[in-house]
Design brief:
The chain is of the alpha+beta class. It has nine helices and four strands.
Amino acid sequence: MKVEIWSDIMCPFCYIGKRKFEEALKQFDGNVNVELEWKSFQLNPEMKTEPGKSINQYLAEIKGWSLPDAKAMNDRVTQMAKAVGLEYDMDKAVVANSFDAHRVIQFAKKKGKGDLAEENLFKAYFTEGKNIADKSVLFEIGNAIGLPKDELKDVLESDEYSKEVNFDMEEAGKIGVSGVPFFVFNRRYAVSGAQDPEVFLDVLNKVSKDEKSI
């Protein structure tokens, strides 16, 4: 079974959805191997990296909210994350364009480390307050998960894997992905959003049953 997940590093619900899906996988006892493939998606491709701006300020500007409303929303999201064992520190989050981070994920996928890259980039952004648009930070993260240093350096110093990132985003548009996380199972079933583990488990079982009947 193949599960493709469109996601953006700076999407708080994507990290939450990852944890909920992982919980479903723990409960899934189908006799099939589940292959995960993370797909690139940018909530705001035009987003400028602004380390001096708080995420609350950013949200207030793009959504037309007040600062207290933006903070209240982030506080709610932080509590949602806590419920699945994640520690968000939104006050430290750096407003940053995620395109280069997605290039690193695409490179990591080629090395069989896509899920590990996704996890560590989420943690860097939401928990550690790192600038995921900073190439030195991306090198540090890629190096920590075992990506070849020389190749990683070459990727970061070029536009390598840009085509793959853009392809994923174009494909998302073609299949109707308007928000993330978006999970596609064997190109037959789809789940949108950070649903509860029971929802994911139900789809996993359906797909497994379909496979057995073929």
